[in-house]
Amino acid sequence: MITIERRNDGVALITLDRPAARNALSLALLEALSEALRECEEARCVVLAANGPAFSAGHDLRELTAARGEADGGRAFFARTMALCSRVMQQVVNHPVPVIAAVEGIATAAGCQLVASCDLAVATPASKFCTPGVDIALFCSTPAVAVARAIPRKAAMEMLLTGRMVGAEEARSLGLVNRVAEDARGAALELAAQIAARSAVTIRMGKRGFIEQSGLPLAEAYDAASAVMVDNMMAADAEEGIGAFLGKRAPHWQDR
Known about the structure:
The protein is an alpha/beta fold and 256 residues long.
């Protein structure tokens, strides 16, 4: 259901491996992904990929439909599913190291939400994205949280209200995807390796600071970012990095 490959460059490759179900986010898959993310907190960068024809088709509609047979019509199961999915998406956003989505195939509904939650994303030219819940009278309200934070408001609303497919190049122009490459997984791993070659303490501090300031009013954001810069300046790697730059030599990171 989930595989983890820890590479020599410090990159962890997490792969969704439920191809027959188009990597639909069942409760079991969400729980496995949550555990995999926890296991990879010591990595230098994480790439999230998937096996099969889809990155993820979103929630498991068969599983959700089966729950309607319960005494409460499925309400408790639906609430549990949405709460777990929301926690996993926030786990991606707040992961201590950058998470890069490698999208091969489609990413729909909660699958698109997962892509939008990642720090960076690489797609193939054939990749497509949509939030098609409106087509089955189930508005993609939780995917909207991530998508609306990744792309402009009106573009997000058009995706949500029409459910139309967005191609890779359009997704890139909107900001949902950073790069389009024939080998999305390979390109994502290459990008991750570039990040992993930097000071780990700096990357972790920088991601945390970026997330914290992004939700603050301007003045508070500058105060928060300034505090991060001061802490960063006190790190041994910053002293080494600045010294290496001024001395015109390669830095030697201590990751502290």
